[in-house]
Design goal:
The protein has 2 domains: about 120 residues, 3-Layer(aba) Sandwich (Rossmann fold), CATH 3.40.50.280; about 100 residues, Arc Repressor Mutant, subunit A (Orthogonal Bundle). Helix content is about 35%, strand content about 20%. The chain is built from 8 helices and 12 strands. The chain is elongated and about 55 Å long. The chain starts with about 25 loop residues before the first strand and ends with a strand.
Length: about 250
């Protein structure tokens, strides 16, 4: 690889009100020599600011604060080594893009990757998954706490309390409940949840299965409803999605 190469342009997404264009997310791509040109151009086309760095400077780039996310696109052993190294020095979001179909994503996710995508994923979906990881990892300054009735969510600590009792929620359940609380009674459609919590876009063939949301709502109800079959908080809006009632 060559020396660090900054993104040579502005974000293609217009800013509200005609003000300055928003800064594009900075993605450091770690890829096999000669195998990243098409990937880099595709991600730039999706509005991401792509950086390439020599192997020996990956950690330095991360520690300098010059990147928002690291994308590992190498063979399995190399990706595992890089992920383990990054996790010893930084909490920077890491997405693994598998190069080999036979490699399972489970090991990467258990080792600290924020997401792991299949070898045949489209560049459009990969960019969408990167943006979704960045949205999930963004935490307001000071550690925001959401409160609504008996529901308390400490976002910085990833802690949920119901009626004063700590309830363990896996990341997707936590993210889904956070989304519903933020809507303050307004409907959350299954498609919105799939994009904002799971990172699946609906404008391509791999948009995600809406029943995934239904399954996670059912699990949440089993933890926060006195009678999950007749919920009082996580309500179904037939034909539209779900809404939260404190």
């Amino acid at each position: 690889m060559h020396a660090v190469e900054p993104y040579p342009g502005r974000s293609p997404f217009p800013s509200p009100g005609g003000g300055p264009a928003p800064v594009a997310p900075r993605v450091l791509v770690v890829a096999t020599e000669g195998g990243c040109s098409a990937l880099v151009e595709a991600l730039r086309g999706q509005g991401l600011a792509v950086l390439l760095a020599p192997d020996e400077s990956v950690v330095q780039q991360v520690e300098s604060g010059a990147v928002d996310l690291v994308l590992l696109h190498t063979d399995g052993p190399r990706a595992r080594e890089d992920l383990a190294l990054l996790r010893t020095v930084s909490a920077v979001p890491v997405v693994v893009a598998l190069r080999e179909a036979r490699v399972s994503p489970a090991g990467f996710l258990e080792s600290g990757a924020d997401d792991c995508v299949a070898s045949n994923v489209t560049r459009t979906e990969l960019a969408a998954r990167i943006r979704a990881v960045l949205r999930r990892r963004q935490r307001p300054a000071g550690g925001e706490v959401l409160r609504s009735g008996d529901f308390v969510m400490d976002l910085a600590r990833h802690l949920f309390l119901y009626d004063g009792t700590v309830v363990h929620l896996p990341p997707k359940e936590f993210g889904l409940l956070e989304l519903m609380l933020r809507r303050d009674g307004r409907v959350v459609s299954r498609e919105e949840a799939l994009e904002l919590v799971w990172g699946h876009r609906q404008d391509n063939a791999r948009g995600g299965d809406p029943t995934t949301v239904d399954v996670h709502v059912k699990r949440l109800r089993s933890k926060v409803e006195l009678d999950p079959a007749n919920p009082e908080h996580l309500l179904t809006v037939r034909g539209l999605g779900y809404r939260f009632e404190p």
